[in-house]
Amino acid sequence: MGKAKRAHRSSSSRKDGGHGASRLLPTLRQLNKGRELATNVDEGFIEVVVMRAVTRFAMVLSLTSALASSCTAAFAAQPYEGFWASTKKDCRDQDSASRMSIEGGNRLYWYETRCRAGEITADGKQSWKMRLACEGEGEKFRANPRVSVAADGRLVIENGPVGQAKRQTYVRCEIAKKR
């Protein structure tokens, strides 16, 4: 039998599967002589586990960023959100019945009325149609106003749930930030 065949036969008959790992890697007893305790996990296995973890983390990170970028528009403040009043003077009067606010994109509040928009659809560049479920003064009712922001920055609500006029116009109130 030639040298090559003997070498092959002797390496394949080893207990470690013929890879010679027992000669290359230290034993647990040798590793544990140092300060840190070793495990029976070899470096190759650790490398694979770390690479899998890094790959999974990268996938989760990329999915999260993709979801965040697609949802950003949904969570962005709408131009009609904020505090509004019939006049600038009413902005300063916290008890004014002429004040209102639109918060979270779909919640509208007046002096004694509050509404939640179940559906909001764009109706032009700076206008929206809303389906509101409202309650105020002990009654529940529905309204379908058209809300728009005029070129001068005023909020216009046509067919709104409050007021006797079919069209209310509001100015934006500048609310001082609390410290």
UniProtKB/TrEMBL annotation:
Residues 1-12 have a biased composition (Basic residues). Residues 1-25 are annotated as: Disordered. This is DUF3617 family protein. It comes from Bradyrhizobium barranii.
